[in-house]
Task: structure prediction
Amino acid sequence: MFTLDSRLKTDFLGSVLKTPLLLPAGVMGISASSLLYAVQSGAGIVTTKSLTLQPRKGHDGPVISPVEGGFINAMGLCNPGIEFGIKEISEFKIKSFVPVIASVFATEPEGFVKLTEFINDSEADFIELNLSCPNVSAEYGVPLSSSPVIVEEVVRAVTDISKIPVIAKLSPNVPDIKLLALAAEKGGASALCLINTLGPGMEIDINIGRPVLKNIFGGMSGPCVKPIAVKLVYEASSVVKIPIIGLGGIMTGADAVEMLMAGASIIGIGTGIYYRGMDIYRKVNNELNEFLMKKDFKHIDEIKRINIDG
Amino acid sequence: MFTLDSRLKTDFLGSVLKTPLLLPAGVMGISASSLLYAVQSGAGIVTTKSLTLQPRKGHDGPVISPVEGGFINAMGLCNPGIEFGIKEISEFKIKSFVPVIASVFATEPEGFVKLTEFINDSEADFIELNLSCPNVSAEYGVPLSSSPVIVEEVVRAVTDISKIPVIAKLSPNVPDIKLLALAAEKGGASALCLINTLGPGMEIDINIGRPVLKNIFGGMSGPCVKPIAVKLVYEASSVVKIPIIGLGGIMTGADAVEMLMAGASIIGIGTGIYYRGMDIYRKVNNELNEFLMKKDFKHIDEIKRINIDG
Amino acid sequence: MDKRISLRIDKIVEETSSVKTFCFSSPIDALPGQFIMLSDLRTGEKPFSISSSDSNGFSVTVKALGPFSSGMFAFKTGDFLSIRGPFGKPFDLRKGSILIAGGGVGVPPLFFLARELKKAGTEVVFINGAKNSDELIFKDLINELGINQIIMTDDGSSGKKGNAAEGLLNTLNESDFDAVYVAGPEGMLKKIADIKTDTYMELLIERYMKCAVGICGQCAVDPSGIRVCVEGPVFNQNMIRKLTEFGVYKRDAAGRKKYFEKAFSK
Amino acid sequence: MDKRISLRIDKIVEETSSVKTFCFSSPIDALPGQFIMLSDLRTGEKPFSISSSDSNGFSVTVKALGPFSSGMFAFKTGDFLSIRGPFGKPFDLRKGSILIAGGGVGVPPLFFLARELKKAGTEVVFINGAKNSDELIFKDLINELGINQIIMTDDGSSGKKGNAAEGLLNTLNESDFDAVYVAGPEGMLKKIADIKTDTYMELLIERYMKCAVGICGQCAVDPSGIRVCVEGPVFNQNMIRKLTEFGVYKRDAAGRKKYFEKAFSK
Ligand SMILES: Cc1cc2nc3c(=O)[nH]c(=O)nc-3n(C[C@H](O)[C@H](O)[C@H](O)COP(=O)(O)OP(=O)(O)OC[C@H]3O[C@@H](n4cnc5c(N)ncnc54)[C@H](O)[C@@H]3O)c2cc1C
Ligand SMILES: Cc1cc2nc3c(=O)[nH]c(=O)nc-3n(C[C@H](O)[C@H](O)[C@H](O)COP(=O)(O)OP(=O)(O)OC[C@H]3O[C@@H](n4cnc5c(N)ncnc54)[C@H](O)[C@@H]3O)c2cc1C
Ligand SMILES: Cc1cc2nc3c(=O)[nH]c(=O)nc-3n(C[C@H](O)[C@H](O)[C@H](O)COP(=O)(O)O)c2cc1C
Ligand SMILES: Cc1cc2nc3c(=O)[nH]c(=O)nc-3n(C[C@H](O)[C@H](O)[C@H](O)COP(=O)(O)O)c2cc1C
Ligand code: FES
Ligand code: FES
Result:
């Protein structure tokens, strides 16, 4: 007999996930408690907020604004810093067996290497390199993942010393994702995470005559970015062999199926929490299972990139 | 007394436009009649479908699909070819004094130069270089406007021989629009047009298990792209002195005001036709005028980039 | 429906050797004269008039012509098709006594119209035209509506000899009607649109369509640029007469003018 | 309201030298206990409880504390502010006899609550606590509702001497109530939440907020991770008692734990 559990249980880089749904970086992931909340809502794997060497309070508000079909946000990488962050991971690990991805952010290879040293001493299962935050350009310029050379360099520097598998999170805001996906793979990444927020975008309040976000610009997430996320996962998965975490605007089981068909191995849900509640993970697990059941598939792997190229 | 006419009448590269609203390339602009329809609906300036040296029937269907907050489309540059196209411009000019932008598409400088020679013999008022079609990548690879060097080269080649002002239409799908805007200006462009469709994106039908668009990928337009369009116009207008045609998801007078505040000189409306009818031009003109009236502005120029940088 | 959806084909009816009706059991909010865009996501996407629609579902009726429509004949019950719509301005349903005249694939949308008129208690005469008795469609369905059906075939193999245009002219001369609705090949439509009559008349016309949502300009007609996919495909006689290209040329997929054969012009 | 909007300030009421109420004459679909995010698009964006709302508009009541709230005092009628919301789970309005206890900026949301309860014909006792008579707010508004108001000041300069928590304890001992609603500084809330009582009790708590839509995780509380901006800011006594961090620490803008001064713990 095939059940929800058997259909959705999946292997990700050697870890067994109860469900293929992931809590992505920066969404709810500040504390052990918020990671736990996602797990209890049906997420099969969780990611911490992107951690930096020093604590960051992030940008002043407004840090987020609703737009057509989603949000623009510029949190500004608020996080308690790597030292405090890995303590939250330990706290989480006391209460849960679910794998944790530690997301880290730096602006040059050395920073990433230092962060990796901290992570090596932590209980994180995977390390994710945020090479693609679009919301700190005033401080740091365009994201590292705009350049294949830099992507390869950073990923290699980290994989050289990391004790756990390395995931590269790439930016959607590039003319050719294939080059960056290949660069990350060549650098030694064990998986890709696609996409970080889009754009960034901007909103102006016409009565006040000012940009709405304090940071002026903010990356887009939510349903409106899904077509671009699906496209980039499709393109990246056509050139790399490593698994891809597909995310960007996933709201329903149908969206998750679409992402799997595009070539993703597992699926992230972030902004969807706003639209369908924390319970979105359980809802999407059920919807995914129902789809597989109705179409007589035994496992999500069977629909990965199905037919698409035929 | 200030009236709608006096508030909205605007100068664009030496031509007087009755209203600052533009019909962008590829939207309704196949024939003289469809350009005329836009004029009669309140557009102050119109653009032809992007013309190529040879006629193109475009991609097979589906060429368009609705997505959250807009559409993805891959028409595939269907057009009757430059020779037939300039005849339509003449036909339009018999019936209207409204300025016409001839949009042209080629894949290398030589092609653009040949097209410009045709346009030089036509009654077009401006020539717009489509350097940014995202929907013919299977044929031609990433758009020309991904590279500042190529943008400058193509624009220079055309301005060298063009008898009329040259507009460069740029791609939103780049990590740093400022480089491309500056390259176009340096190459001699008289104005920029921002943005062409975003992404492109992709949709997969999960029951059929196939990409929905025959071209697989399609550029995004409509309300969902507005935040990114506003951001790119804001960024470009902070570095170039030439005027910018701002477009992407404009639906209402409020949207138009937002685009002007971001730094646009005139405003394009394409996909908005779907949401509010051909009459959208008249509606937006009225809404724009009402906003200016309520806030005691005498002319749209007064709100261009107002306060934004304060 | 704002989004594209894929629907399971629930029933296929073979109307003739070259015409099939595809039925879907999901309801669609459609009115007679409207069309959907139908695609297999492999060959192409084409507009098809809705040939029936109610709370149980809807259907389209396809004639095998070129690659896409012939390709449709390979589909079986249970297969999925991708659908957008409904699109376009429907017929304006008048009251009183109504005359309908259809030729070829003009018949399906008119059948849907006749059914709705009949539901509203309106009196309907339906002229059903075809090349020959083999190509005649919907004869039984129209009879089942309990309305007056006049069959016309070019070769006289069924009903009267002659085409739907001739049938319409004769019927109009014999009796008074409150409204006339017509659909069929452009040659036939042109002849009918040219009739001088005070009777209110609407015609369903076809133009090459791509977006079907009024933005690509492909179906814009001369001289006004109005869009067959939005302001049409149903136009009244006055509007049709203002279309300088009607019966003269139409645009191909590239937007070039393609003139009809001589037969079509006055 | 799904989108951010900017609204003209239509009226400003100076409640005390450090508290102002900003009124907007656009209606907002809000319930007592809910809050909006308010921004000048220059200094920041902060959550403020809705202090009244009906079909004519709504208001928020701001105490000058730090840069943002003090900055608000420069705004004049006619200026625009940027607003998102309303957000959060409102109070669950019970029937019967109701006890309300507020301290400081906990009073504004409770005033809105009292007004709605009164509208529903419910009997309400309102304990209005402040440091001293100068800082007392909404005294007249609450009296105008025609309900029993018990004023408490720390220094006894108005009403009884003592804080709202003490006032609540005394009142609860004297009479029976069907529900108790509380808002105010965490020290006060903590004392009240610790009261052993069978009476249904809800408390409105504050945590640092950024997104207010439940996705950034900033306001998630230990140990369950539930979000004050979505599952709160109103919690019942049972839920509050499960929050291990309540009265002990809260997180700053970076997500670090900041422990309260000794005074707050049991
Ligand atoms: C409003 C409308 C309603 C229609 N309703 C029906 C119907 O109910 N039943 C039916 O069988 N057919 C209908 N058609 C015609 C149908 O859309 C196709 O044109 C037809 O199926 C032939 O397509 P093909 O690709 O098989 O043939 P092709 O060989 O590609 O084309 C044959 C002819 O069809 C026309 N055509 C091709 N593509 C299109 C297109 N995208 N849009 C419009 N015309 C096109 C061309 O002018 C060509 O002359 C309708 C067309 C329109 C515009
Ligand atoms: C649900 C809720 C309802 C509130 N209702 C009111 C109200 O009706 N009236 C009122 O005057 N104040 C209210 N506040 C508090 C208000 O949001 C601000 O915290 C306060 O105005 C101080 O901000 P500041 O920037 O001026 O001061 P700061 O000096 O920056 O901060 C002073 C204190 O306010 C807290 N604070 C600062 N920023 C935030 C933030 N983004 N979110 C939450 N707390 C923050 C900090 O913990 C700090 O201790 C409410 C807060 C919450 C969470
Ligand atoms: C509020 C918010 C904060 C985010 N913070 C981070 C972050 O710190 N690091 C990161 O790599 N991505 C961050 N992201 C991006 C998400 O992880 C995700 O890639 C993106 O939102 C697209 O997915 P979605 O549409 O499901 O939200 C953030 C997104 C949001 C909405
Ligand atoms: C159906 C369609 C066809 C288009 N064709 C062209 C084209 O040929 N050349 C071009 O430069 N842009 C083309 N565009 C892009 C538009 O000109 C415009 O830049 C884009 O749609 C964003 O504006 P909007 O959101 O107002 O539609 C097309 C857009 C659409 C929707
Ligand atoms: S088919 Fe595109 S405008 Fe009608
Ligand atoms: S403020 Fe972001 S989750 Fe509550």
